Amino acid sequence: MKRRTTRPADEPLRLQEHRRPVTRRDFLAQGFLSGVGMVMAPTVLSLMRASTARAQTAGCVLRAGAGLIPFLCLDLAGGANIAGSNVLVGGPGGQLDLLTAEGYAKLGLPSDMTPGNANQVNTELGLAFHADSAFLRGILSKTSADTRSRVNGTIFCARSDNDTDNNPHNPMYGINKAGADGDLVTLIGSVSSDSGGNSEAPMSMIDPTKRPTKIDSGRDATGLIDTGNLVSLLNQTQAGQVARAAEEISAIKLAHESEDPALESQILCNYTQTTDLITRYGNPDVVDPAQDLDIALGANPIFSAGELNQGRFAKTAAVMKLVVEGYAGAGTIEQGGYDYHDSTRATGEVRDFMAGQMMGAALEFAARRAQPLMLYVLSDGSLNSDGVLDNSTDGRGKGIWKGDNSDVAATFVLVYSPTARPALSRAGANQIGYFRPSASVETASTAVANNVALLAEAVVLNYLALHNRVGEFGTVLPMNGLGSGAAFNNLIAFAPIV
To answer: Of 3, 179, 196, 496, which is most buried with the most CB atoms under 10 A?
Structure first.
């Protein structure tokens, strides 16, 4: 067939079968918008952290990381391919319970590339990927063999609506309800939304007081602990002493004022929190990915200087550093441009490869920090092929992506443990639910197969399972729709790792 020209990696998608983009979601899915937004730099008062004694007196709560497994969510906006050409899916027998040839063609795989053929399956990550998966190739480019040997995963066979931010996919508030927290901030996301990403969070999980702080660059990360010029003018010890003196002076002044007690308490709390912030984090470089030897500066950095100048990798570096090192409890990285059914395969392959690099970077950074990590990858809906092949270099002889198709959607989890590959809760748990032979989600296979809000709950359930706390699920999410005990055992993929 005619050779196709690959689109530049971040070129917006002009899809003839779609109306002109008019909403933020339209622009994001087609790559016209990359998650930009204004962030107000935190004020001195909002950044303050208190000394223990004065914090207790003023009713403040000192922030401290909860010590739970770091959690990252990668939100591919627009309806990316996940099932089949990337992570393998099968029938009731699991990932390698083969579908029909027609089914694999719908998932973009020609007959000579189906998993029934030799050398078409890769299980280096525990979870079975197609051997030529663009996600996998991206992950391989950023991870060591040792890192990959300590990873396992599961794929959720579950429908979600196409091209919409109304899917309540994002489980971060539920992860926080399970106890995840950070030293500086509870939740972060790369866009200014209630979920921190494109897809929404389930209403039953949302806590407005924990709305994610927008982080999409190293500058945003260092802004979390911006103490102005005080530390640059003085050393960190002297700066802490100055802040403590200001705290004491404020306490004396407040003692002679007749203000509302709650207001006085808040003012005092803010001042005393500043002292703790300066004492512990006087140098913002501690959270700057560009100053990190493993991420950017060392002999074998995860990202090259050129990559860190790209928006997708800059926000990945910032969010993963804050989450893996415990400064934030959980984070979402949103990446637009995944509505890539432009009658080529090449565009999707290039973008999926870079998404894989984002995944691999997070896993590798966790490995270098000897920290566990739960990585959740989602997209709003999916897309299908009509069997016509793209034989261009980047098309790789696979089926072109022709149109949206929510019936072939899926999400997946990868878990890294520094000790050993995470064990599954049972044989075959690399796949939750299953696909029909024709390559559509069997919506009766699990409670989450046709309910995105319950799918988010199942992610929280698996997070608890990794901590050996499944029995607390009803307390963490008292309004959940999954039931208890035997009712949700088939949704748990992982044995505890901590």
So the answer is: 196
The three-point CA angle 350-352-353 to 5° equals 65
Domain housing 380: 63-225+285-491
Asked if residue 413 lies in contact with residue 493, where contact means CB atoms within 8 angstroms, the answer is yes
Mean pLDDT of 382-389: 96
Domain count, the chain: 1
402-444 confidence digits (pLDDT tens): 999 999 999 999 999 999 999 999 999 999 999 999 999 999 9
Residue 362 CA to chain centroid, in angstroms? 9
Question: Does a structural domain hold residue 371?
Answer: yes
Burial class (CB in 10 A: 0-12, 13-18, 19+), 124: middle
pTM of the model: 0.82
In a domain, 30, yes or no: no
> CA 235 to CA 253: how far, in whole Å?
27
Where are the alpha helices (H) located in 208-310, listed in sequence order? 218-223, 230-233, 236-255, 261-281, 305-308
What is the rounded CA–CA span in Å between residue 182 and residue 324?
10
How far apart are alpha carbons 378 and 376 in whole angstroms?
A: 7
Supply 254's token pair.
């407040």
| Identity at 91, one-letter amino acid code | G
